[in-house]
Design a protein that fits this description.
Helix content: 25-40%
Number of strands: 21
Catalytic activity: 3-phosphoshikimate + phosphoenolpyruvate = 5-O-(1-carboxyvinyl)-3-phosphoshikimate + phosphate
CATH superfamily of the largest domain: Enolpyruvate transferase domain
CATH topology of the largest domain: UDP-n-acetylglucosamine1-carboxyvinyl-transferase, Chain
Main location: cytoplasm
Bound molecules: shikimate-3-phosphate, phosphoenolpyruvate
Number of domains: 2
Subcellular location: Cytoplasm
Largest sheet: 4 strands, mixed
CATH class of the largest domain: Alpha Beta
Enzyme class: transferase
GO molecular function, one term: 3-phosphoshikimate 1-carboxyvinyltransferase activity
CATH architecture of the largest domain: Alpha-beta prism
Distance between the termini: 31 Å
Length: about 450
C-alpha cells in the first residue's frame, strides 16, 4: 500500500444506534495464507472455499504464482491452486512484494530457505520496520544465506535477499519468542530438508500450520511434555497431497463485532461460522470474564477446525486483570480489547504484551494515544496498558485531530468501534489499511448499525 498521505482515506465513525442482525465474517487470514502456500507445494489441484480475499492473502497468492504455482480465483472466495511439488519452487523473476503482511514474509522466507532459489522480499513502510531477525536466525542455521539489500536499515529488516540452501540442514530450534510465524517458517523450511526438523515451543501459539501440514500428508508429530512445552517434528522431502479446504471465519475479524455488540446499548448480533480453535479464542474467554454475553451456538467442525455461531448481546462490562498466559491466543485482538476496557466499569490491567510493539505498528503506544484522544483514561507501561473505564458511558470522542493508524488495519477497526461507542464520533486518519485483512468491514458495520 502506498504511504502517499494525499491518498489517505479518512473517516469519522459516528454513533448510529444499536447493532442488530446476522453477519458472516471473511475467512481466517492465517488459514487462507497456509491454504495457498501448501496448495502450491502439493502436486495436483487444491480447492479452497471461504478464502479471505484481503490484500495480505493476495500478496501470498502473487508470490506463489511468481514461484511457479497456478493460483486462480474461480468464484467469490473460491480458489484453485495447482502446485509444483515440494522442492520444485521456481526462481522468482522479480522481487516478491509482501505489502503489509508479516505472515506472508516470514512463512515464505521459510519456504525459500530450503529451495535452490534466491528471492528478494520487499514490503510497505510498516512491514519494512518489522524485525525479520527472528526468522533469519533459524533459517541461517539451516544453511540459507540472507543478504541485506542496499537500503536495509540494519537489524534484519526488509528489503532482504534470501538465498536458499540445497540441501538444507535439519535443526532443532527452541523458539525464543512465542510466535506462530517463526514456528511455521522453520516447519515450512523443514518440508524440503532431508531428515527431521524439530521446533520446540515453550508457549503454545496458533497451531494451524501443524493441523494443515498433517492434513496435506506431511509426517508431523507433536509431543507435549509435563511443563506444557510442545515438541513438533516434521520429516522432510515430504510429498504433499492436494486438499479441499473450507476456511472458517476469522475470529480476529469477528472480535471487532463481538466488542461492538457488547458495548453499544441495545445490540444483538449473530456472527456465523467463527473459528473457535483454542489457540485463537482467548478474546472470547476474556470478554466473558468481563461479563460479556457471548453464546456459542451450533458447535461443529469446518476444514478441520472447531467452529461455532456466536450470539452476542449488549452487556455491562467490568475491568479485569488479563492473565499474560492467554496472550498468544488473542495476540491480534488486544487493540479491540482495549476499547472494551475503556468502556467497562473499573480498571483493566494487561501485561506481557511486548510483542504488540512489533506488529504493523507499536500497538501499545498507538492505542494509548488513540484512546486518550477519544477521551479514555489510559496509562502505557513497558509491556501493557492500564485502562480505567467509563463504567458503560460512551467515550467523549469528538476530537478534531484524527487518530493516527500508522498503516495498521487493527488500529483502524478498533477505533471505528470506539467511534460508534462515543458521543461525538472518532475520526480515523486512514481506512485503507482495513483492506489488508477485512475488505468488507465498513459495509458490514454500516449494515448492522442504524
Ligand atoms: O502465524 C500467523 O498466521 C500469525 C501469527 C501471529 O504473529 P506472530 O507469530 O508474530 O505472533 C499473528 O499476529 C499474525 O496476525 C498471524
Ligand atoms: C499482525 C498481523 O498480521 P501480520 O503479522 O501477518 O502482518 C495482524 O493481522 O494483526
Amino acid at each position: 500500500m502506498s504511504h502517499d498521505t494525499s491518498a489517505m482515506r479518512p473517516r469519522r465513525f459516528l454513533p448510529n444506534g444499536p447493532l442488530r442482525g446476522r453477519i458472516r465474517v471473511p475467512g481466517d487470514k492465517s488459514i487462507s495464507h497456509r491454504s495457498i502456500m501448501l496448495g502450491a507445494l502439493a502436486v495436483g489441484e487444491t480447492k479452497v472455499t471461504g478464502l479471505l480475499e484481503g490484500e495480505d492473502v493476495l500478496a501470498t497468492a502473487a508470490a506463489m504464482r511468481a514461484m511457479g504455482a497456478t493460483v486462480e480465483r474461480t468464484g467469490e472466495g473460491a480458489w484453485s491452486v495447482h502446485g509444483v511439488g515440494v522442492g520444485a519452487l521456481l526462481q522468482p523473476q522479480a522481487p516478491l512484494d509482501m505489502g503489509n503482511s508479516g505472515t506472508s514474509t516470514r512463512l515464505l522466507m521459510g519456504l525459500v530457505a530450503s529451495h535452490p532459489i534466491t528471492a528478494t522480499f520487499v514490503g510497505d513502510a510498516s512491514l519494512s520496520k518489522r524485525p525479520m531477525g527472528r526468522v533469519i536466525t533459524p533459517l541461517s542455521q539451516m544453511g540459507a544465506r540472507i543478504e541485506a539489500s542496499v537500503s536495509d536499515q540494519g537489524g534484519g529488516r526488509l528489503p532482504l535477499i534470501l538465498k536458499g540452501a540445497f540441501p538444507a540442514v535439519p535443526i532443532a530450534y527452541r523458539l525464543p519468542v512465542a510466535s506462530a510465524q517463526v514456528k511455521s517458517a522453520v516447519l515450512l523450511a523443514g518440508l524440503n530438508t532431508p531428515g527431521i526438523t524439530t521446533v520446540i515451543e515453550p508457549v503454545p501459539t496458533r497451531d494451524h500450520s501443524e493441523r494443515m501440514l498433517k492434513g496435506f500428508g506431511a509426517e508431523l508429530d507433536v509431543e507435549t511434555d509435563q511443563d506444557g512445552t510442545r515438541i513438533i517434528t516434521i520429516r522432510g522431502e515430504a510429498e504433499l497431497k492436494p486438499q479441499t479446504i473450507d476456511v472458517p471465519g476469522d475470529p480476529s475479524s469477528a472480535a471487532f463485532f463481538i466488542v461492538a455488540a457488547l458495548v453499544v446499548e441495545g445490540s444483538e448480533v449473530l456472527i456465523e461460522n467463527v473459528g473457535m480453535n483454542a489457540t485463537r479464542a482467548g478474546i472470547v474467554t476474556v470478554l466473558r470474564q468481563m461479563g460479556g454475553h457471548i453464546e456459542e451456538l451450533n458447535p461443529r467442525e469446518v476444514g478441520g477446525e472447531p467452529v461455532a455461531d456466536l450470539l452476542v448481546k449488549h452487556s455491562p462490562l467490568t475491568g479485569v486483570t488479563v492473565d499474560p498466559a492467554i496472550v498468544p491466543s488473542m495476540v491480534d485482538e488486544f487493540p479491540v480489547l482495549f476499547v472494551a476496557a475503556a468502556l467497562a466499569e473499573g480498571r483493566t490491567v494487561t501485561t506481557g504484551l511486548e510483542e504488540l510493539r512489533v506488529k504493523e505498528s507499536d500497538r501499545l503506544a498507538v492505542m494509548a494515544q488513540a484512546l486518550t484522544l477519544a477521551g479514555a483514561r489510559v496509562e502505557e507501561t513497558e509491556d501493557g496498558l492500564i485502562i480505567d473505564g467509563t463504567g458503560g458511558a460512551p467515550l467523549a470522542g469528538g476530537a478534531e485531530q484524527p487518530v493516527a493508524t500508522h498503516l495498521d488495519h487493527r488500529i483502524a477497526m478498533a477505533m471505528a468501534v470506539a467511534g460508534i461507542a462515543s458521543c461525538n464520533g472518532v475520526e480515523v486518519d486512514d481506512t485503507r489499511p482495513i483492506a489488508t485483512s477485512f475488505p468488507t468491514f465498513e459495509a458490514m458495520l454500516d449494515g448492522l448499525c442504524g
